[in-house]
């Protein structure tokens, strides 16, 4: 199970995360300050939702152009999360469907949210395929309660389609073990950046489940 953590400019932490194989979660607008590989790109919709703001489409498009046209100079992300609407059900899928031109050539994950069913997402994946777009994975977003209640079914759903499953906000030892037991392919959290105790516990849990090594 691959683990990613948010950005830090602390050289000691950059080296520590690299030592443990923990990648970087690069959120929209952070490309110029990216510090380590591997990495994935978070579209920033969750931050906007938390702040009560509209999705910053202009910045997302600019970031996608930079990634796509860097010719590998900046390193390719493991995946990009298609823009989504937090806890908005199938309206989020309709929103995600409008960004394929911007992520062309990149491995793209679709975010699943409160109110979606496996059938809803299966139709999205099939429609994308019919339009010559490929969904490389599902990103389990949404509210925390919904995520914890449904993650197992999304892992099974993704693996049945031969794609990967990522679960966000997995930063405590209990949740690391929980994700590993479910067969989640990758996780992310900013919690290990906040306090050394969180960081030590997180890395120890990763080691125990054989993740990010």
Could you outline the blueprint of secondary structure elements for this entry?
Blueprint: E1 2-5, H1 11-19, E2 23-27, E3 39-42, H2 45-51, H3 57-68, E4 80-81, H4 90-96, E5 108-112, H5 118-130, E6 135-140, H6 144-160, E7 164-167, H7 173-182, E8 186-189, H8 196-209
Parallel strand pairs: 1-2, 1-8, 2-3, 4-5, 5-6, 6-7, 7-8
Question: How would you briefly describe this protein structure?
Answer:
The protein is an alpha/beta fold and 213 residues long. The protein has helices spanning 11-19, 45-51, 57-68, 90-96, 118-130, 144-160, 173-182, 196-209; strands at residues 2-5, 23-27, 39-42, 80-81, 108-112, 135-140, 164-167, 186-189.
Keywords:
213 residues, alpha/beta, TIM Barrel, 8-stranded parallel sheet, globular
Give an account of the 3D structure.
- By secondary structure, this protein is an alpha/beta fold.
- The protein has a single domain, classed as Queuine tRNA-ribosyltransferase-like (TIM Barrel), CATH 3.20.20.105.
- It contains 8 helices and 8 strands.
- α7 packs parallel to α8.
- The chain is globular.
Order of strands, main sheet, comes to 3-2-1-8-7-6-5-4
Task: Kindly state the number of beta strands.
Answer: 8
Which bin fits the share of residues in helices?
40-55%
Unreliably modeled segments: none
What composes the largest sheet? 8 strands, parallel
User: How does CATH name the architecture?
Assistant: Alpha-Beta Barrel
Q: Mean pLDDT, as a whole number?
A: 95
Q: Provide the CATH superfamily.
A: Queuine tRNA-ribosyltransferase-like
Q: Compute the gyration radius: what is it? A: 16 Å
């Amino acid at each position: 199970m691959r683990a990613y953590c948010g950005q830090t400019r602390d050289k000691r932490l950059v080296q520590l995360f690299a030592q443990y194989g923990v990648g970087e979660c690069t959120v929209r607008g952070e490309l110029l300050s990216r510090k380590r590989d591997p990495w994935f790109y978070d579209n920033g919709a969750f931050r906007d939702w938390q702040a009560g703001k509209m999705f910053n489409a202009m910045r997302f498009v600019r970031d996608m152009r930079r990634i796509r046209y860097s010719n590998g100079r900046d390193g390719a992300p493991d995946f990009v999360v298609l823009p989504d609407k937090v806890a908005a059900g199938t309206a989020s899928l309709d929103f995600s469907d409008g960004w394929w031109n911007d992520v062309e050539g990149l491995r793209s994950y679709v975010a699943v949210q409160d109110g979606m069913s496996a059938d809803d997402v299966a139709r999205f994946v099939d429609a994308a395929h019919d339009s010559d777009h490929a969904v490389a994975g599902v990103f389990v977003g949404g509210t925390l309660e919904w995520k914890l209640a449904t993650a197992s079914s999304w892992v099974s759903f993704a693996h049945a389609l031969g794609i990967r499953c990522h679960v966000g906000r997995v930063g405590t030892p209990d949740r690391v073990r929980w994700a590993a037991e479910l067969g989640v392919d990758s996780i992310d959290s900013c919690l290990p950046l906040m306090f050394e105790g969180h960081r030590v516990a997180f890395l120890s849990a990763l080691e125990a489940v054989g993740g990010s090594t």
